């Protein structure tokens, strides 16, 4: 996929008519806003005039990837004058997104009751650790806490080794994606009703939702899922296997694919073994089957097995590290690592949006902003005069 020859003009993109006020911190909230920014929304990221230092600050890889396609306004929301500026902007905004604890947003003047009174058409998106109400509503939450409380760590890892966290901030990212979907649903509904909605989710809810079929095993049949390591929890052979020079993933639990698999690894006798006569039997007798498969795979390198298996329709692939993943020819063809020029950092690559819409450019239009980089132009667009902006700056509001 070749990127377009020029960055898209704002009006080219599907969300270009939406103004978003971004009051998010950490990862979950910014992930939601990034979805809106990538598809053209005019996102104003509102930061404190002297933001607290974080690892790498505004030039860390994480920040550069999370906050592309946004503009930045500094505003002191701890002061009434700063809240007055925010409230005036809310009157002209379509969406406000935040992920702060309930007492904080009330104290800083952007709780739902306040903002909906200022602008009845506003859609507000919120992410919390555990929900907006209930016994844990006041608690702060972070990804790994949600992974543990939501059950994911109990089913991750090798059987017997104890709970293991996922290698990515999965509840943060999932909550962000769920919130973005909810915000777009509310925007669509606003076209009919004319009123905004409060859309909210939590790290805990997103984590439980991500359990998917593992959760359904419990809710439907009270079957408590155990750890299954690198094997599929209920099917076999389906998992990671050692080869002659590394590791590969294979999915061959079904009918014809199982038969082809036994032929490709030169173990046809497995087809007549009663222990492996069905996907369920192969899962029950996983240890014996895996031992036979690993012995067969040890005779050739990963690349050769991947080529042989895919040639006959057996889903398989290597186990890459991150560098190998981005060097993969299919990943390079898809253009997942997208270029952007940063005025301080220089030319870099960030991870483009994973969704493709035919006919709509999927590129990075803006570098992640420095704190307050666009304060003057944003306030001018929202109706402040030059003198008013200078006064706000002189008073330390910006």
Describe the protein's architecture and organization:
The chain has 398 residues and is of the alpha/beta class. It folds into two domains: 10-211 and 333-394, Rossmann fold (3-Layer(aba) Sandwich), CATH 3.40.50.10540; 238-319, formyl-coa transferase, domain 3, CATH 3.30.1540. The protein is built from 17 helices and eleven strands. The chain has helices at 28-38, 61-66, 80-90, 102-108, 112-118, 143-149, 170-193, 203-211, 213-221, 255-264, 279-284, 286-297, 302-311, 322-327, 329-334, 375-381, 386-394; strands spanning 19-23, 42-47, 71-74, 95-98, 123-128, 198-202, 238-242, 247-251, 316-318, 337-342, 346-351. A hairpin with a 3-residue loop joins strand 10 and strand 11. Helix 7 crosses helix 8 (203-211). The model is unreliable at 1-6 (pLDDT under 50).
Provide key terms for this protein.
398 residues, Rossmann fold, formyl-coa transferase, domain 3, 6-stranded parallel beta sheet, disordered N terminus
List the helices and strands and how they pair.
Blueprint: E1 19-23, H1 28-38, E2 42-47, H2 61-66, E3 71-74, H3 80-90, E4 95-98, H4 102-108, H5 112-118, E5 123-128, H6 143-149, H7 170-193, E6 198-202, H8 203-211, H9 213-221, E7 238-242, E8 247-251, H10 255-264, H11 279-284, H12 286-297, H13 302-311, E9 316-318, H14 322-327, H15 329-334, E10 337-342, E11 346-351, H16 375-381, H17 386-394
Helix pairs in contact: 1-7, 7-8, 8-9
